[in-house]
Amino acid sequence: TTLLVAPAFAQDWPQRQITMVVPFAAGGPTDTVARMVAERMSADLGHQIIVENIGGAGGTLGAGNVAKADPDGYTVLLHHIGMATSATLYRNLAYDTLNAFDYVGLVTEVPMVVVARKDFEPNDFTAFISYVKDNADNLTLANAGIGSASHLCGMMLMSALEAPLVTVPYKGTGPAMTDLLGGQTDIMCDQTTNTTQQIKGGTIKAYAVTTPERLELFPDLPTAMESGLDGFDVSIWHGIYTPKGTPAEVNERLSKSLQSALADEGVVKAMADLGTAPSPAEDATPAALQAKLEAEIARWQPVIEAAGVYAD
Ligand code: MLT
């Protein structure tokens, strides 16, 4: 019966600290976004939101943990587009993506950049394209596992270039970046939240952005589309979810707290410095996130099926 009427605890939730699961290693782009909003949401809620990194299986391990958590408002998931792509990529997923979660809201949408180790030979994206086509089987592409944003972008890049690169999976693109900086891997497609500092510092090489328009942050970087990669348009939206059955009052309270965090000028500035911006308040809502997830599962399913890339 507790599921039929709002349990008493929903009225005076939260009473203790909350866990925000990030399904990738610390130090990567998902972790960066999570810690930004968790800090401000904690202040708004009056109880600490602790970020817990559960990496592995392209984000599906952490998502699965939250799917099984108590729907009491004390465990939330911050995940990105991988929530949608994994629904097609994983044929034995431990959870039913559209029935295992409730929704809080969208957080931000982050552009991606095609980057390489700093001494990678090609000097521009046109040269990059022909070099990668010619040397595909000797080049490594780092990602955060099947279902990650870097995997999706890498898959699109390999399909567009018809270049089956050797892929190297990590528990997040935080650790992947460490190896790229060290020259252990050759190429990565990663979010501006994780590449801006390195690009500005010249410790990695940037070739193109994955958005339809060039970025103010890097006006000299061409878009993949203007370089001839038709339809190469991918940005990484992030959302906050709760386990299915979490009281609506709790999801709504979390959404209000998220909206206040996204309106915080410190968050707006920090996101702008990293090439992104908060989702508008009307998108930081349960209905908007649910609609986005459903639309994105439908959008990426044919792309993934055409690429024939699955995780078994
Ligand atoms: C991804 O590629 O999905 C993310 O970069 C993983 C991460 O946040 O580390």
Approximately how much beta-strand content do the residues carry?
Answer: 15-25%
Q: Sheet bearing the most strands, described?
A: 5 strands, mixed
Outline, from the CA principal axes? globular
C-alpha end-to-end distance: 38 Å
Pfam family, one: TctC
Keywords: Signal
Family: Belongs to the UPF0065 (bug) family.
Structure explained in plain terms:
This protein has 312 residues and is of the alpha/beta class. Helix content is 41%, strand content 19%. It is built from 11 helices and 10 strands. The strands form 2 sheets. A 5-stranded mixed β-sheet has the order 2-1-3-10-4, with helices on both faces. Strands 7-6-8-5-9 form a 5-stranded mixed β-sheet. Helix 4 (82-89) crosses helix 11. The longest helix has 22 residues, at 286-307. The two termini are 38 Å apart. The relative contact order is 0.20. The model has no long low-confidence stretch (mean pLDDT 96). Residues 24-25, 28-31, 82, 144, 148-150, 172-174, 190-191 line the site of D-malate.
Helix/strand layout:
Elements lengths: L7 H4 L6 E5 L6 H17 L3 E5 L6 H8 L7 E6 L1 H8 L11 E10 L1 E6 L7 H11 L4 E4 L5 H13 L4 E4 L3 H9 L5 E5 H10 L2 E6 L26 E8 L4 H16 L1 H9 L12 H22 L5
Family: Belongs to the UPF0065 (bug) family.
Keywords: Signal
Pfam family, one: TctC
